[in-house]
Each structure stands twice: as structure tokens, then as C-alpha cells.
Design a protein that fits this description.
Layout lengths: L1 E5 L9 H9 L14 H15 L3 H8 L8 H11 L1 E9 H10 L5 E8 L5 E5 L5 H11 L3 E6 L5 H6 L2 E5 L3 H6 L5 E2 L2 H13 L1
Length: 201
């Protein structure tokens, strides 16, 4: 039994925080897990910037409502789900994900949650579990699944390396240089072909 575990941002949809950085005019928010390996450190920094500028969940959700999946992402996901099980493992939040999942045809997503005050201020965040992506891959493996994983950022490396097969997708040049043993692809056709080869083995 196989299950494909995909990152979301940068793989299927644009980076939410980059889009919000552009919409809000706060370039510092363009920093993502492509640049910062420590996700908790990154989120604490982001929350500090939101507080400094008086921005809350509503403003971020307004930006998300205007984000579409990356070109070809839904078609890739539709074809992938027609041949095997697939799930999205993301460090995004339930308050961000729903509009994007609707546009992708409601795939299953495991993600985190924000702590939001009644006035919409984002006060904190709650990870579903420590090392969320790795822990989820290991849980799938513990119930008899072989995992195949793909992602683009530092926070995807654990699940990629722990899987039967793992791929970088549209990753940074630095990550590709640091992990030359991981196959790296730039198009959905390449990634789908690589996954099919693993499924056929």
C-alpha cells in the first residue's frame, strides 16, 4: 500500500506569506521555510510583525481568497489521486487552508491551527504534533503504508528522507546543492512520472 505525501505551499499553491507580504507592503514577511529551517522561530517572528502592524486573521484571509493554485496543480493532483492515495501535509493552518482546498477539489490535508482572539488578533499557533510532517509519515508507515513524499523547503526534508521515495519539487538552489542525493523536479509531469515509476516497482 502506498500513500503520497505532498507539501502544499510552493508545491500546489503559491506561498501564502509571500502573497500577504506583497498585499500588505511588508517585505519582511516574504521569509519562508525555504529560508528558515526552524518553523517555530519563523512563526514567532511573523506574529511579532503582525502585532507591530496591527494586522490580524481577516487581512490574511482576504489575501488567501485571491490566491489560486499554481498552474497545473489541480490537474496533477486529480491524476495522482486517480492512481493512488494522496494527502497534503502542510505547516499552514486550518484558518488558511479551506479556500485553497476547495480550489484543489477538497483533497485531505493535515495542518496546524492558529490561536485567534475575538477581535481577530493572531495570538499564537499550535502545531498538531512536534515534527508534524515526519511524525505523520511515520504514523502512516506504522499502519502498513509505504510513503512517497515531495516538497520544496527545509521543513519537508524529514518526511522526504524518511519515505520509501522522496523528491524535491521546485526547491531552492541551496537545498538542491545541500541534498544532491534527492531527485529534484521542476514540472508536474516530471514529478508524476517519478511517482508512477515508484508505484510500478
Amino acid at each position: 500500500m502506498n500513500i503520497v505525501c505532498l507539501d502544499m505551499e510552493g508545491v500546489l499553491v503559491p506561498e501564502i506569506w509571500v502573497a500577504f507580504a506583497e498585499a500588505s507592503g511588508i517585505p519582511e514577511l516574504k521569509r519562508t521555510t525555504r529560508n528558515e529551517p526552524d518553523y517555530s522561530k519563523l512563526m514567532r517572528w511573523r506574529l511579532g510583525i503582525l502585532k507591530e502592524h496591527g494586522l490580524g486573521l481577516a487581512e490574511i484571509q482576504d489575501t488567501i481568497a485571491r490566491i489560486d493554485p499554481l498552474p497545473g496543480a489541480k490537474e496533477f493532483l486529480d491524476e495522482l489521486r486517480s492512481i493512488t492515495q494522496a494527502v497534503i501535509l502542510s505547516d499552514t493552518f486550518t484558518q488558511f487552508a479551506a479556500p485553497l482546498m476547495k480550489k484543489l477539489g477538497w483533497p485531505t490535508i493535515f495542518c496546524n491551527t492558529l490561536v485567534v482572539a475575538p477581535d481577530g488578533t493572531v495570538e499564537d499557533f499550535r502545531l498538531r504534533i512536534s515534527h508534524t510532517k515526519l511524525a505523520t509519515v511515520k504514523a502512516f508507515q506504522s499502519i502498513g503504508y509505504d510513503t512517497i513524499a515531495a516538497g520544496d523547503s527545509f521543513n519537508d526534508l524529514e518526511m522526504i528522507q524518511a519515505s520509501k521515495a522522496g523528491f524535491l519539487f521546485r526547491s531552492t538552489e541551496q537545498i538542491k546543492r545541500d541534498y544532491p542525493n534527492l531527485p529534484a523536479y521542476e514540472t508536474y509531469d516530471e514529478l508524476l512520472d517519478a511517482i508512477k515509476r515508484v508505484l510500478d516497482d
